[in-house]
Amino acid sequence: MEKYDTVILGYPIWHGQAPKIIYTFLESYDFSGKTILPFCTSHSSGIGSSADNLHELAPNANWPDGARFAAGTSESEIQAWLESLELIDTTEVSTLPYDGIYPQHEPYGTEIGAMPGRVVWTYDPDSVEWDGKGYWWELDHFDESVILDMVNDSIAALGGKDTARDGWTALFTAHNAAHGKSGGYAAGQKIAIKANINGSAVYDDDTSGETKMSYTNPVLLKALLTSLVEEAGVAPEDITVYDVSRLFPNYLIEICTEGELKGVRFVDRDIGVADESAPIVWSHEFSGKVNYLPTCVTEATYVINLANLKGHSYGITLCGKNHFGSFINGNTMRPPEGANLHQWLTRNEMGIYSPLVDLMANANLGGKTVLYMLDALICAPSKGASITGDNSRWQQAPFNGDYTSSVFVSQDPVAIDSVGADFLMNEPTVTDYNGALRGDPAVENYLHEAGLVGNAPSGTIYTDSQGHTVTNLGVHEHWCNATEKMYSRNLGKDEGIELVSIMK
Length: 504
Ligand SMILES: Cc1cc2nc3c(=O)[nH]c(=O)nc-3n(C[C@H](O)[C@H](O)[C@H](O)COP(=O)(O)O)c2cc1C
Hints:
Blueprint: E1 6-12, H1 20-27, E2 35-42, H2 48-55, E3 67-70, H3 75-85, E4 118-123, H4 144-158, H5 164-178, E5 191-194, H6 218-230, E6 239-242, H7 250-255, E7 265-267, E8 274-279, E9 292-294, H8 295-298, E10 302-308, E11 310-312, E12 315-317, H9 319-322, H10 335-338, H11 355-361, E13 369-376, H12 389-392, E14 406-410, H13 413-425, H14 428-433, H15 445-451, E15 498-503
Parallel strand pairs: 1-2, 2-3, 4-15, 5-6, 5-10, 6-7, 10-13
Antiparallel strand pairs: 4-14, 8-9, 11-12, 13-14
The protein binds flavin mononucleotide.
């Protein structure tokens, strides 16, 4: 007790008073000169005489007025009370030197979202249980209810609320406000979810999903759909999940359209229809084929970008690159090749044009996106890699040799990919299994172009594909070090990224 100047003393009211064990506690130490802050919980009684009667047991302590909390007191009410006490200096301080692979710099760009610049990272090791054998995606490797809780907790925290329901309202309202509209989600509005099915049916028409390569986690997709239906109040028939360059595995469609999800639509490369009134306008001259967005995107009011946290032979493939499956051209199997785009991702250079920034800026894609989510339940070191127990168990804390078992969400496309880029490129398991990434910080070129979009290092003027120059896409910076994983807002600044970690 000598170490403490302030003691926060909590107890339930029993018959109008504190339980006797609290008396014993106060009689057991010398509280002279210390501050004791009492609070109680009760069915209906106020703190009343219970606190006064405790004063006599520590008469030389300082006793400010106490507080009483009823059942149902929310976390934010308790938080507000703690903050009102002004006891704790909430400014965290980084104690370790920077050890990241990327050059460190101040935040580039302006934060976006209900809680500007916020990225929520939810980690629950109970979500994944896999011995590393067979296919990574088999449904019994995942705990569905744990993953649904992870999604709902992430949405609540991203909106700065206590519940997913309020969180969704905050996210839709903030997105609409940023586009000059008021209110939240309105019944009947359509939502297009871009999943990343890249590893499945790459070169063939196999819809079994039986590949060891990476694609959107089926259980996470189901959890996101369930949260949208149950908590955001979206009707399943107003939701389309799409990837117009791949085929969805049949079993995945089945679990994502059963029960209350009946009516959710899936659009793949076979049935995706090009909206010829919506060609993608690249900010760089291309000789490739014209690329059209699918009608499920142009008809939607909102987009959700559900990407994977994974490496690629062309760098890192997070929310930015997920939209390489969002357009249709004459090359059905490989639209990005048809569009001649990959040359810009393989050059390992900073300060060059990035097609990913055009997709982030596109009025129908980035412009409609209400939520960015990174599936990091089991991460692949590279797009083409077979996922095995060995190459997906990560070394950095808190994973410590186990699966990443995580979900990341944000409303800021640059912030979420900046956080993803820090996790990915500073992870020895990823760089051990992916030679293309090892020692190549230039994979973040698109994040510099996006963060500084109004004055991009390459000199490119990026537009939204509808003739408007884009001046901000979100905020980019790097964490303070791989151990503490703090960004500017975690370090008490009023700008930059805030990484909110929910560790189960
Ligand atoms: C033996 C006993 C006596 C209690 N007496 C009171 C009381 O006098 N006034 C009151 O408001 N609540 C009373 N309660 C309710 C407790 O304060 C309440 O259970 C406690 O704050 C914990 O809250 P919870 O039951 O919602 O978890 C009593 C509970 C017990 C078990």
